Amino acid sequence: MSAISVASRYANALLGEAQKGNVLDRTYQDIQLFEQTTNESRELRRLLKSPIISVDRKLSSLKAIFSGKISDLTMNFLHMLVNKRRESYFKEIIDAFYEAYNDLNNIKMVELISATTLNEGLESKIVNTVKAQLGATNLQVKKTVDPKILGGFVIKIGDKVFDTSLQNKLSTLRREILAN
Q: Which CATH class is domain 107-179?
């Protein structure tokens, strides 16, 4: 079974249980906390990925770190994954959970890449234009600064890319000149 299908099954199971228990938003926050903690702690990532470390040690570590900070549902879910030796899929499961949560709540993920930090007015104008084009009410915008694009901005929505960067315009001009 592929990592994507494993992740999707577990993520959808967690989402379903969270909906049944009416704790979907809390579960989302728990998953964010778990992701942030594992991203910040190299030791925790190594502990969870290690095939040598026992299941009991992994479970006791998770309990020590997250007890009282995440809901019982999320803690039980993490324990189940460790017991079934699925901890190597944590990243994929988290990504699949976010995707399912966003689909359920009609949240569109947008990445806005600019050469420099945009002022609030321009950023707001771009976001409002994207909202209007998508017909979306909920946008989650990830802002990235990439000086390599030289100017303008790039918007990524799923697998679609809208590139108004100076780098793209110069590349297009270069191709046209070389073709002639």
A: alpha beta
